């Protein structure tokens, strides 16, 4: 089974926990091929990834460098960064017919091998049903400018099973890049906006447990053996995340000691991110104050 990630240096702290939880809970890691698209990772970062994965007996590990500015330079950025769009390139880097893409802000409690042999039913992707288009942040653009229906099913792009055979046959990658270049400043949810533009209402459904959102202020979702997805900001590892994210202890339980030493500390990049998400911190503070009244 092929599993892909897409990271820059800021995502390394989350990647370690996602990888460890994924493989600790996999029934047969020797069946797993890992592909990691790397944006500005250094030699030490790559060495740390190989060291973390060494004990699992994986079938194959590939670390693939890519230049975000070359491919996505005109697209709207996520807090000044374009790495998130890297998943749109997977048809070029994974030669097999399917790949499970995972964000690096997850705790994977289930066995991903249950998706082996998944039936795409002729669709280009599979994802967890994320509700109706009318409730999506980017629905004004997707409905009013692109012409999509308000009642179409949409999805979160953090966990996607890609039908790469379909993507290559229809050259979806280049269609996505052309769409991004045309509407670069209007991509409110970034690559997720692009993917929903192509596949909203036209994707196969993954079981709900494959993308269980967990917001900082909420209790743990009740379902067991799921993929916990730390959506929104702050994340458990962000500045003050230990105190404000209710999923911190679950996340920390999968943090490898060497990985913690290498990445669980704050530098200029982390503090800059904290500044970018300052409104999220303020919202959490207000919620805490209201809950005490």
UniProtKB/TrEMBL annotation:
UniProt key word Zinc-finger: no
Report if keyword S-adenosyl-L-methionine is assigned.
no
- One matching Pfam family: Glyco_transf_8
| UniProt-listed CDD domains | GT8_A4GalT_like
Q: Name one GO molecular function term.
A: metal ion binding
SUPFAM superfamilies named among the record's database cross-references: Nucleotide-diphospho-sugar transferases
Keywords, alphabetical = Glycosyltransferase, Metal-binding, Transferase
* Name assigned to this protein: Lipopolysaccharide biosynthesis protein, LPS:glycosyltransferase
Q: What is the lineage of its organism?
A: Bacteria, Pseudomonadati, Bacteroidota, Flavobacteriia, Flavobacteriales
């Amino acid at each position: 089974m092929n599993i892909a990630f897409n990271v820059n240096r800021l995502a390394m702290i989350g990647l370690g926990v996602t990888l460890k939880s994924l493989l600790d809970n996999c029934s047969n890691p020797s069946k797993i091929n890992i592909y990691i698209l790397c944006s500005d990772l250094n030699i030490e970062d790559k060495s740390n990834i190989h060291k973390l994965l060494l004990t699992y007996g994986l079938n194959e590990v590939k670390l693939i460098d890519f230049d975000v500015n070359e491919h996505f330079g005109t697209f709207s950025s996520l807090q000044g960064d374009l790495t998130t769009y890297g998943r749109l390139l997977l048809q070029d880097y994974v030669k097999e017919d399917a790949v499970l893409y995972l964000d690096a802000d997850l705790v994977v409690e289930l066995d991903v091998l249950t998706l082996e042999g998944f039936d795409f039913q002729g669709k280009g992707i599979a994802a967890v049903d994320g509700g109706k288009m009318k409730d999506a942040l980017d629905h004004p653009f997707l409905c009013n400018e692109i012409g999509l229906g308000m009642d179409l099913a949409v999805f979160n792009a953090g966990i996607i099973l890609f039908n790469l055979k379909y993507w290559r046959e229809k050259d979806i990658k280049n269609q996505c890049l052309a769409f991004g270049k045309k509407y670069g400043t209007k991509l409110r949810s970034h690559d997720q906006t692009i993917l929903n533009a192509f596949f909203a209402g036209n994707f196969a459904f993954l079981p709900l447990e494959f993308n269980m959102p967990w917001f900082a202020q909420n209790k743990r979702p009740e379902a067991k053996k799921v993929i916990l997805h730390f959506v929104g900001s702050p994340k458990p590892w962000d500045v003050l995340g230990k105190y404000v994210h209710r999923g911190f202890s679950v996340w920390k339980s999968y943090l490898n000691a060497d990985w913690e030493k290498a990445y669980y500390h704050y530098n200029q990049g982390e503090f800059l991110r904290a500044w970018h998400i300052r409104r999220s911190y303020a919202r959490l503070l207000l919620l805490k104050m209201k809950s005490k009244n």
